[in-house]
Amino acid sequence: MTDYAAEKLAAEARDRALGFRIEECEAAVRARIDAEAGGIRRQTWAHLSAQSFQTPYAELERIVADADPEESLDRWIDLGAGYGRLGIVLSELRPRARFLGLELVPERVAEGRRIYASLGIDPETLRQGDLADATIPVADLYFVYDFGTREEIARALDSLREYARRAPIRVVGRGRAVRDQIEREHPWLGAVVSPRHFGHYSIYRSA
Q1: What sign results for the dihedral spanned by CA atoms 51, 128, 87, 131?
Q2: 24-58 pLDDT tens trace
Q3: C-alpha of 83 from chain center
Q4: Are strands 75-79 and 141-144 parallel, antiparallel or unpaired?
């Protein structure tokens, strides 16, 4: 049985070892949001610990192995990438895969890109993007955490459905909101190939 608390602690320790300045970065995010009070508020998860809204490295390693056991997927996109942990894991486990991480919060993108550069990962693969407005690129696999509101997640899934009409895709849904929406509103995922459910994530395939 997975010890999730231990995995989060291990992930926090790995962040420090890699040189991430996450506490400093999150303080800057909260200060900016407070200064912008009165404007349009977006879901940034800044009120939570950074370890609460990021997937632990050990879990990401399992996700990569479970979602791509044949090591055949070329293009991976993380919708709501945070500090870019999935890109780090893919650089180790699937170095030939092409990764793109999209994250709303620019401070997190800047910090992730700094670490990417230190690790020899292309910083341009982690980008600032508003998933409510941006066009999501085509990929083989999409990692979708609960990155925003129900409406924003629905728009993203609608975009993925259009891509799936042209070529099969895989979707890793992590979190209650996105998995609930897929199960209730998107039968095109899992209608032919039965989804695989794990503790915190599910893996779906289009027909």
Answers
A1: positive
A2: 999 999 898 888 865 445 667 677 777 778 999 99
A3: 9
A4: parallel
Here the tokens at position 35 are 């200064």
Which residues are CB-neighbours of 87 under 8 A, at least 6 positions away?
Answer: 78, 81, 99, 101, 112, 116, 121, 125, 126
Cβ count near 168 (within 10 Å): 12
Contact 186, 161 (CB under 8 A): yes
Domain boundaries, the chain: 4-205
How far apart CA 54 and CA 89 sit, in angstroms, is: 13
What six digits make up the tokens of 207?
């027909």
Q: What is the 3-state secondary structure (H, E, C) of 62-117?
A: HHHHHHCCCCCCCEEEEECCCCCHHHHHHHHHCCCCEEEEEECCHHHHHHHHHHHH
For 101, other C-beta atoms within 10 Å of its C-beta total 28
4-205, CATH topology level: Rossmann fold (3.40.50)
Of 140, 55, 137, the closest CA to residue 94 belongs to: 140
Evaluate if pTM is beyond 0.90. Answer: yes
Q: Per-residue pLDDT tens for 80-136?
A: 999 999 999 999 999 999 999 999 999 999 999 999 999 999 999 999 988 877 789
